[in-house]
Amino acid sequence: MDIFKLGDKILDLLNVIFAFWNNQVSLVFALLDQSPTAFKDGKPWDVIEGLEPVFVAVGSSLVVLFFVIGFCSESIDIREEMRFEVILRILIRLGLAEYLVANNVTIMKAFFQSVGALVGLIAEGDRIELKVATEQADVIKNLGFGESLIMLILASLLSIIVIICGFFLIYTVYFRFLKLLVIVPLGSIAFSTMSGNRVVAHTCATYCKYFLSVCFEAVTMALAIVVCNAFINAGLPSFAGDYADWTKTLIYLCEMTFTVALTVGSVKGAQSLTSKALGL
Question: DSSP per residue over 42-101, as a string?
Answer without folding.
Answer: GHHHHHHHHHHHHHHHHHHHHHHHHHHHHHHHHTSSHHHH--HHHHHHHHHHHHHHHHHH
